[in-house]
Amino acid sequence: MPKSRFKYNSLNRRLDVLVSGKLWLQVLIAIVIGVAVGALFGPDLNLVSRSVAELVGEWLALPGRLFLALIRMVIIPLVASSIIMGLTAAGEGSDLKRIGVRFIVYVLTTTMAAASLGGGLAWLVGAGKDIAVKAPPTPSLKPDPATIEQAVSPIETISRDLPAMISNLIPQNISASILEQDMLAVVVFSLFIGIAVITADNRELTKPLVSLMGAVLEVCMTVIRTAMRFAPFAVFGLMAQTTALNGLNTLIDLAVYCAVVIGGLGLLLALYLVIVAVFGGMTPWGFLRAVAPVQLLAFSTSSSAAVMPLTMKTAVEKLGVPPSLAGAVAPLAATVNMAGTALYQSAAIVFLANIAGSSLSFGEAAFIMVTLTGASIGAPAAPGASIAVLSATATSFGIPLTGLALVLGVDRLLDMARTAVNVTGDLVACRLLSKGGPAAASAAPPAPSHAAPPPKDAAA
């Protein structure tokens, strides 16, 4: 059993303290109060002039600006250490080799499909287009569109720029990429480092690096946890400013955004059921009955790591997965299989871009999907952790974060839904790999009545 995976649970439990402390309820209350205060200065009541409303909104939004700055401060080391630790969670690499290419293809395919689905639905519906948030411009890493020669057609643009886009995926100067907050470069670099650590001839020499990344992850998650304690104040200020500038119509756009994410997660769940029916040899209804307890627990805890022991137990006892295979796949899947999170983040990126009035080109949208797919690998499986990844990705593509208050306000509900879908994807992976191939061939026969006991620190 991989031990490094379960080290995340100590961090997860600390973040879960925020959940048990009703942080989500505090955020919801902050939304209501923020909307009420903002409405007093908004165009619906028209009690004050627009200039006064904008000035008051700037001061109300100050806690939110400080909150976002604190998140951005640690996002680069957080993402890098999360990805590296996630890849090295396969122990000495034997578990990863046993799982094989099939698991990697499954994760990449479903995550990329989910990211494309979320962004596509948000773009199709136009979520956030009716919201206008005044904010200082965020420095963009993209070239000025005025300096780019207009292409005759999208196909010609892609065929001309695709070779350079592919070659630029590998960062030539990681220091410059970090200074520029180029999230895609950081993700690619971290993936290469994580794979190199796993496949190194002398693993003893890599242990100091793994220990360092574990320490970096611990520190960054501590900063994130501390910042999340001030989330209600940040959400209040940003919601008050947004409502003061746009009026109560903001709530309608927020409902549209939630519908897009939940609808996308429903489609992703349907895709999982099709996969398990076609390739897993189970009926969709039979699979849902088997995994329903895990889904409900994941929905309530918003942490795929917290329900990992039940995930392994369900895979062995109800899905017929060999215990050794379940013990290898479940921890790794809880780390790298985050398709629901990728869908949510891609929809949120488009939502934030529409609020800021930023139009994304086809190339930028494609890069965002690739970035979110890579950033989802190794993302901390804990409540609210994806907000940090979302903030960094938006910043790296020059998208202002002033609409993040709306995303934060409903993040708890959407986090519960996407965690349930993520855990479903983990169990689908266990079932698929148990149906044949290298992973199943090397696994021991299934235990008749019980799963392999999880480590003590894996308990939720």
From TrEMBL:
UniProt feature, compositional bias: Pro residues: 445-460
Residue span of region Disordered: 438-460
Name this protein carries in UniProt: Dicarboxylate/amino acid:cation symporter
Coiled coil: none
GO molecular function ontology, one term from the record: symporter activity
Signal peptide start and end residues: none
GO biological process, one term: dicarboxylic acid transport
Keywords, alphabetical: Cell membrane, Membrane, Transmembrane, Transmembrane helix, Transport
Its membrane topology: Multi-pass membrane protein
One Pfam family named in its UniProt record: SDF
Location in the cell: Cell membrane
Membrane-spanning segments: 21-41, 66-91, 103-125, 183-200, 254-279, 286-308, 328-353, 388-410
Main location: membrane
InterPro entries: Na-dicarboxylate_symporter, Na:dicarbo_symporter_sf
GO cellular component terms, semicolon-separated: plasma membrane
